[in-house]
Amino acid sequence: MAPSGLKAVVGEKILNGVIKSVKKDGEWKVLIVDHMGMRILSSCCKMSDILAMGVTIVEDIDKRRERICSLEAIYFIAPVQKSVRALINDFKDVGFTYKAAHIFFTEPCPDELFTEIGRSRVAKVAKTLKEVNIAFLPCESQVFSLDDPTSLYSFYGLKPNENKDKMIENLAEQIATLCDTLKEYPAVRYRKGPEENARLAEEVYRRLTAHKADNPSMGEGPDKARTQLLIVDRGFDPISPILHELTFQAMAYDLLDIKQDIYMYQTTGIGDSKEREVLLNEDDDLWVQLRHMHIADVTKKVTELLRTFCESKRMCTDNANIKDLSQMLKKMPQYQKDLSMYSTHLHLAEACMKKFKASLDKLCEVEQDLVMGATPDGEPLKDAMKSIVPVLLNNELEAYDKIRIILLYIFHKKKGITEENLAKLIQHANIQAESNIITNLENLGCNIIAGGRNAGKTLPERKERTGSTYDLSRWTPIIKDVMENVIDDKLDKQQWPFIADPAPINTTQTAVSARFGHWHKNKSPPEYRTGPRLIIFVIGGVAHSEMRSAYEVTRATDGKWEVLIGSSHVLTPTSFLNDLKTLDQVPNPDC
Amino acid sequence: MLERLQTISEDHEDEELEFNGPEYDADKVTLSQQAVIFENSSAIDEVLKEAQFIRKEISLLQLEVERMCMQNERFGTSVRRLTLLKKDCDSIAKGVQQRAEALYVRLQDLGKMSSQLEEKEGPNSAVSRIARTQYDTLTHAFRAVMSDYSKAEEKQKNTCRTRIQRQASIMGTDITDEQLDVLVDKGGEGWAELSQSLQPQAARTCRMAFCEIKSRHEQLVELEARLKEVHELFLQMAVLVEEQGSLLNNIEVHMHRTQEHVDQINDHIKKAVQYKKKNPFLQCCPCLPLVSMLTPLYGSK
């Protein structure tokens, strides 16, 4: 199944709008990217895609490169000084590095840099020069990232980014390119409270208006006037990024060491046992099916699917399990792709369960009681301290797990806890070295120390949710309530003000014929999705459970709305705690 | 935007001329770029030509596989002229197989070329990386086509099987999956067994069904034989995939494996060209070709 949503939109825009647009039959080209260009490209295109469009080699603009003068070059770079200088350098000396240049910037190029290029010899060899307006990464079909893991520090650190204005402008521009790519002109809203939310929202509005002037088709279409863009801060829901989640994707990224979406495991294939590296992304159909499922259902589902697969291919095995897979592979190597897929997910699920059973089952019970304020039977939690002390005293648990429990206890207390109580807890847990993680959360506006600087701030009231869930998965991210409220038009305008009054919504429905006028629906480009979108940007990082909520809410509207969520980067509990740790440190002057 | 850039460029040139006056302008001299730079282009051209040929062959193979699918559809759903249709199916499928095998050999040759280039020019040189990338993506594309072929043959197999079982049950005999397996494995003998078990029952009235079963049984036997032949090819490809690793197609991983270009030889030639430019003899006496020829020789040591 081809990727849909954001990945498809951006992939199509790059493959057709950039690479194919300069393709000439019989001629190959060199593609040169800087860091941002490479990240964007890699997130939605594969080597085979770009080779099919006439690119024969991909180079890094920041590395010294060999001259290839018989080929023309496509530059896909951000309009920043470093990349522009490198571009100019390629054509500075007498011998040009490439035959000609086709330049594509990820966002609008500032005037000074543009003039610099104009005055250089690049102007003579440039055959194309465009701004494509893609300055974000499409991580998933409904999740985007701005690829900046330092963002939490930039906003909430001890010495927050001195160029905070410039940083907010850059962020706003990136978010505006997202809307531009999707042809949306949303009404911008922000959570009232932290001043960064309002500033970012204003700047986004300014940039959006500038983009709309160049691209009037943004926001046009039936129902598009209802599209909204929400700016929210991480401190709004500090629970979701630290809670132990038991859905496949969230759990795997939390418990296992998965970097850059690459999962490594040991397995036997046709050859001997060796380490396999697998990319967990939407090209893997099975991953898309399983990633939001509860772990208890995952192993069941994969085994069932594998059995059906084996039966349909008439491979006689009694139990289709991991060990038999290499046998099957030898007998029917043409199914290598499918068999590897099953193997990967069986291993992944097994690895998660192993870690869970080792130490986490008791922990998750306590966590869920704390965040729900009640036991699975509905009994309100009476003595929270009693339930967390055995966890804190357990020497087999890691420091970060203990910190997570302490934080969840503090949030359960709603008004924060006293300094002495905090000190006691830290002592029980023996985590003095990491204790600043807890207090640093105050920088995000969370109420940690009772009567401290965030006194009076509380987490929002929650919706009542009925419906059966697993006992260890009762928590829903707070953002899900917000998503549902926006869609029902019930989101409080005082707490979530608009930057500009939204356009009046045309409530009269134009008559739509059932027979005629739908011919275009099969052929419309991927970004032209009728129906409004809700785009949410979280300052400081987005958690996997919140990403999952976007899909769940979208599905619940039966496709009428599409919810997109994103941030500067995607969090895992460990990375979030690591980020928090640095908040009270002075930035390294050398960086 | 390009026009804007070019306007700036022209304005800038006019400015420069005003300030500097007519001088020896590096831009205006078309130097002997040929001698200095086109060292890698013929090797690259060769690789690209071969890659383009293989790429075209793969798309032709894809078309043949699609043709095979369509023909299979017709064979699968029709009730008349089965022998004729079967012959067409078989010939297309055999054609696909032969083409695939020839293409695989050519691909392997490209792989060898790529390894040789890596040894000769180093794995980091542009031409080796171009060759390696082309080889990797072409293998990927070839595998995809072969996967489609395999799926088509599987589908055909299943269609034949269900048809046989259905026709047999119409004639009054039920054949289970396992029995059918055995009958197919036995080939011609299997047909003899099958026809005997069917014969006594209303063979005359169900002549058509009888003929169909015969035809499809033959088809199955041939299919199985073809699949056995191509099994070795699939096995080799699977081994290759395991060795290459599944991250091959990922752009970021691909780029991290590339290192900085160590540009020793070219640096010297650059310097030589600069010396030539600054050569006082050239500037006042352009008719001294001898001197200009000697300088690069000294520079490249």
TrEMBL record, chain B:
Keywords: Coiled coil
Protein family (similarity comment): Belongs to the syntaxin family.
UniProt key word Coiled coil: yes
Protein species of origin: Acanthochromis polyacanthus
GO cellular component terms attached to this protein's record: presynaptic active zone membrane; SNARE complex; synaptic vesicle
GO biological process, one term: vesicle docking
Top-level taxon of origin: Eukaryota
Record-given protein name: Syntaxin 11
